[in-house]
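Good day; I would like, with your permission, to put a structural problem before you. A protein sequence and the structure tokens that stand for its backbone fold form the material at issue. Thank you for your consideration; the sequence and its tokens are set out here:
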Amino acid sequence: MNEYMFTKKQLRYLKIKRIFDVFFAVFLLIILSPIMLFTAILVKTSSKGPVIFKQKRPGKNKKIFTILKFRSMKIETNKNDRDLHDFERVTFLGKILRKTSIDELPQLFNIIKGDMSFIGPRPFLINDLGSYTPEQEIRFEILPGITSWTAIHGRNTVSVQDKYNMEIYYAKNISLKLDIKIFFKTILVVLSAKNVVDNVNKPRIASKIIDEEGK
């Protein structure tokens, strides 16, 4: 991975950004705890399986961490001896959680732990490591985010490679002004609930997803 040289101003901002991330993550956990508790009860009672979905993802410097989400899929990965695609496993409640982005709320714990930021490149699967060009690997120079530059530019209507390329711009131009822009536009995207369904990229098959470092 070619190390990118951030400006002194960007390096200062990244330090300040981390402080704000922790402060607001704790604040939101307190404010949103009733919603999160209610969601946890709904997930547990609506379908078999754990409340929290955990999956290994590559983060800053390609360090593998465990991302947290409210489970939005059935735990079954095959039916009638056939591997199921992700879209076949999403529950009715899961569709609502994804549409409103409530499924992402447990990632507030990822932020506090230091695995993620509110804004940064979305962490893709371990399977995708090795599919990045040297320039695209700039995404691993900063913490991955709950929302991102790609989230406000098509969300799930652009290909994975296009998303990689979009994040090059974000990483090279990271600043308070850009993060504020992404923050407010993300709110509009969530409220509009547009582009939730991915009609561009090939659906994933659960049994083929690498979920552990070195697997």
Remarks:
- Strands lie at 52-58, 64-70, 78-79, 82-83, 117-119, 145-147.
- Residues 8-208 form one domain.
